[in-house]
From TrEMBL:
It holds the Pfam family Ferritin_2. PANTHER family: DESICCATION-LIKE PROTEIN (PTHR31694), OS05G0151100 PROTEIN (PTHR31694:SF26). This is Ferritin-like domain-containing protein. The lineage of its organism: Bacteria, Pseudomonadati, Pseudomonadota, Alphaproteobacteria, Sphingomonadales. Residues 54-66 have a biased composition (Pro residues). It comes from Sphingomonas panacisoli. Residues 46-67, 265-286 are annotated as: Disordered. It comes from the Bacteria. Coiled coil: none annotated.
Length: 338
């Protein structure tokens, strides 16, 4: 029987990673302290310029309110919501239980997880890959929570169920992978697990790349780039294994299903046609492991477009799909798409 100690062990999978996170937090904390000191010195100079009181300025007209600027903390919390989703999916799939409650507390309403169970893997390679990715995603949650400190949002309600009312079934039906009368259980087989992982990993890569320009602190930006690289490794691995299994056993229709999922994501996130399947779209078997442009540069998604996909809607909403009540934090509304 798997106990809570096993879940905690996943959060602490690598001493080297924890050491790197501590180094990052020290650097980020020093940078924030330095900025605070400069601001304080500036305020002191304004209040007492060589002993001469600063004249009180004339009252200015009340300006028109403008939307609050997106902060680095807002961006990191947006990423944390996505990492909660991935970490819960992978930990349930590999050990049959999710993250411990202490690892999901924070600002906002703490949610729960609907669905999730261990996959009975038949391919030992897939099982090993799944365990490694589970450790990585749990580490991402721990890392972002450490970077945010008391500003970290709590995990929102998450739906990773494979039943008739589950988010995976809704996504598979929308993509045409299954019919309206069928259900899609991501925990039923190695292949279903890989297709479910394919949904998340590709979106995670484009989300981090799209969020990069929103981050102003270079230390945070470097950390986000590191997570982006890890997610890209995961995505490439999942795409590769799906492609290989699809070639070996064409009857599984894995290449075709991945293409349908890609098309569904494209239909949700706007008018652009950036998303790509794992093989050439002309019905051939040429691999397409890296979804990129003609310069081999991966594409980006805005935060709103990312939420379109995880909410499973083209409308401007604050919840749905894998996040029934929405994500926690400032960035939580999907974009109204044409």
């Amino acid at each position: 029987m798997i106990d809570n100690d096993t879940a905690l062990a996943i959060l602490e999978a690598s001493e080297a990673r924890r050491a790197e996170r501590r180094r990052f937090l020290r650097m980020a904390g020093a940078g924030a302290a330095g900025l605070g000191s400069l601001a304080m010195l500036s305020a002191c100079n304004d209040d007492n310029n060589g002993g001469t009181p600063t004249p009180t300025p004339a009252p200015a007209p009340t300006p028109t309110p403008t939307p609050a600027a997106i902060t680095d903390a807002d961006v990191l919390n947006f990423a944390l919501n996505l990492e909660y989703l991935e970490a819960q999916f992978y930990t349930y799939a590999t050990i049959g239980m999710g993250l411990p409650a202490v690892a999901t507390q924070g600002v906002g309403t703490q949610g729960s997880v609907t669905g999730g169970r261990a996959v009975t893997f038949t391919d030992p390679v897939v099982a090993q890959y799944a365990r490694e990715i589970a450790q990585d995603e749990a580490a991402h949650v721990q890392f972002l929570r450490g970077a945010l400190g008391g500003a970290a949002v709590a995990m929102p309600n998450i739906n990773i169920d494979g039943g008739a009312n589950g988010a995976f079934t809704a996504a598979a039906r929308a993509a045409g992978v299954i019919t309206a009368a069928q259900t899609f259980d991501p925990y039923a087989s190695d292949e279903n697990f890989l297709l479910a992982a394919y949904i998340f990993e590709d979106v995670g890569v484009t989300a981090y790349k799209g969020a990069a320009p929103l981050i102003s602190n270079k230390t945070y930006l470097e950390a986000a780039a590191g997570i982006l690289a890890a997610e890209a490794y995961h995505a490439g691995l999942v795409r590769t294994v799906l492609y290989r299994k699809g070639l070996t056993t064409p009857s599984l229709m894995l290449i075709e299903s991945a293409g349908k999922i890609s098309d569904a994501r494209d239909s949700l996130d706007g008018a652009s046609d950036d998303d790509q399947g794992i093989a050439s779209p002309d019905g051939g078997v040429t691999s397409n492991i890296v979804p990129a442009d003609s310069n081999a540069v991966a594409f980006s998604r805005t935060t709103g477009a990312v939420l379109n996909i995880v909410y499973l809607s083209k409308s401007a909403l604050v919840g749905g799909g894998f996040f029934p009540n929405g994500v926690n934090g400032t960035i939580r509304t999907s974009t109204a798409q044409p």
